[in-house]
Structures are given as structure tokens and as C-alpha cells.
Amino acid sequence: MSQPTVAVLGTGLMGAPMAANLLKASFPVTAWNRTLAKAEALAPLGAKLAPSAAAAAKGAEIVITMLENGPVVEETLFGASAVAAVLARGSLVMDMSSIEPSRAREHGARLAALGIGYLDAPVSGGTGGARDATLAIMAGGSAEDFARATPVMQAMGRPTHVGPAGSGQLAKLCNQTIVSVTVAVVAEALLLAAAGGADPAAVRQAMSGGYADSKVLQLQGQQMLDRNFLPRGPARMVLKDSKNILDTARELGLTLPLAKCASGIFNGLAAHGGINYDHTAVLLELERMNGGKRVGSKPDQLPG
């Protein structure tokens, strides 16, 4: 049985390695990116390149969008890019971007009216997970569409069906709530250790394996100790997710004080020039708030 043809729209930091893993799994892939050079790197791996999003999507059985935010996804599907207009009935759109749950539900309904399947399937795991095909994939949509897309998703990571359309984005917001709060609190803990005279690297090591341990403590904690704030997960993306978290909470009549607090700290980082720094640069904002107290003596690695 032949593999379904796949179009990947958006081949940036996450989309490019995801497309590469689809190619490794022998899926026929057509790639498009607004900046063509980012798609060209996939050509030696066997990808076809398209000059527009619609050209990439035309004839594809499954279309994957990995774009920056909800408005960009909407414009690509239904605006001037006109992707939805060229899709055949029975094809499937899998939006792996991180967008608002309400917008995802609307996109699913609009595509269903055209006879097109839909999954909102955002991911967690960062660029490393995208490269290693170990992404956590949170998918919302029908059981039938999930089953159909499972082989494609398994080439990129570990898919889980979490409910109807919009549920994938809701799960991603849950994920990002935990990540944003945890990154901020790890920075606080390291700053507390340093200010009190302990070795923050040794304190982090001492906590490894205990209840406070986590991937964030291990990975992002090390980046903070190295003072490496080159963007892997830029702060602007945390701010986008934080806005969606708090907007969705208001829609649901919820108050989320920890998410609100973390959002405020990241907004402070952005206001002081760090919007394109890695999200671990929340440490810089906490240091600024505390009169310049500092974690370690290494120089800061910042984007140019």
C-alpha cells in the first residue's frame, strides 16, 4: 500500500526536521515556506518544493501546517493563500501549529463543510524532539481522522487523541501552562541559590532525581547556568501561548494566578528587549527585578 502524499506548509525550526522525518519514513513530501531557503534544505532529502502554499497543497492527501500563529494559519487556509480552495474532498488538514482552541474549532467546522477532514495536532518537545521524532503530539478531531493520520504522526513522534476538534490546542495550552510556570520557577530557584551563597549548579545537581526534578530543570536549567539565551524556544512564542492560555481561561470562567504571574514576567522580559531571546532568558528579567543579582559568572550568549 502506497504512503499518502503529504504537503508541509512551514519549514522553520520545527517544520523542517518534522518534514525530514516524514521523508525518512518514505512519505512523499512537498514543502513550502514563506522564506524559500528554509524549504530548499529539504530537497536533497527528496522533498519536492512548491512556490506557494496552494501549489504545495494541491493534490496532497494530507496537508500539515506548522505556522507561527492562528491568524497566519487562517490566512493560509482561507485567505489569499487559498489552500482550502484547492483541496480535494476527502483530504485531511492537520494543523500542528499552536493556535487558539476556539479558532481550531472554527477551522474544523469550515473544512468539514467542504468535505475535508481536520485535526488540530500541536506538539511539545522542542527542536530536539522534532529532530529525533520524539514529539508529544496532542490531537483533536474525529477518531476516524486520527486513525487515518496516525502513521504520519508516528513518523514525527507519539500521537495521543485527546478529544474533538480544538482539544489538541487545549492540551497544548495545558502543556504550555506547566512549561512557562516551571521555566520561571527554575530561574527563581537558581537565583535564590546564587544569592544565598550556594553553588547553583551543585544545587541543581542535588535536586536531580528528587521531587523537584524535571526536564525543564535538567535542560533549561543547564542553559541558564551556561547563560545560553540563544533562541531555541523564543520568548515571543511563550507570550503568544500565554495570551491564548489566559484568553481561554477567561472564556471558561477560570482564574489561573500562576499562569498570569508567569505571563507578567515574560512580558517584562519582552519589554526590556528580550522578546527574541530564548525563553530561559526569563532569568535575565528576574535578575533585573532583583537589582542585578546574578547566577554564575559566565558571559551572556544572546542573539545578534
Give your account of this protein's structure.
The chain has 2 domains: 6-163, Rossmann fold (3-Layer(aba) Sandwich), CATH 3.40.50; 170-289, N-(1-d-carboxylethyl)-l-norvaline Dehydrogenase, domain 2, CATH 1.10.1040. Helices cover 51% and strands 12% of the residues. The chain has helices at residues 15-24, 36-40, 53-57, 70-78, 83-86, 101-112, 126-132, 143-154, 167-195, 200-207, 215-226, 235-251, 257-274, 282-289; strands at residues 6-9, 29-32, 48-49, 62-65, 92-95, 117-120, 123-124, 135-140, 157-163. It is elongated and about 65 Å long. The model has no long low-confidence stretch (mean pLDDT 97).
Q: What's a quick, concise take on this entry?
A:
It contains 14 helices and 9 strands. With 304 residues, the chain is α/β, with parallel strands linked by helices. The strands form 2 sheets. The chain has a 6-stranded parallel beta sheet with strand order 3-2-1-4-5-6, sandwiched between helices. Strands 7-8-9 form a 3-stranded mixed beta sheet.
Number of strands: 9
Tally of helical runs: 14
The whole-angstrom Rg is 20 Å
CATH architecture of the largest domain: 3-Layer(aba) Sandwich
> What is the number of independent domains?
2
Mean pLDDT: 97
> Major beta sheet, specifics?
6 strands, parallel
Shape: elongated
Low-confidence blocks of residues: none
Q: What keywords describe this structure?
A:
14 helices, 3-stranded mixed β-sheet, Rossmann fold, 6-stranded parallel β-sheet, alpha/beta, 51% helix, single chain, N-(1-d-carboxylethyl)-l-norvaline Dehydrogenase, domain 2, 304 residues
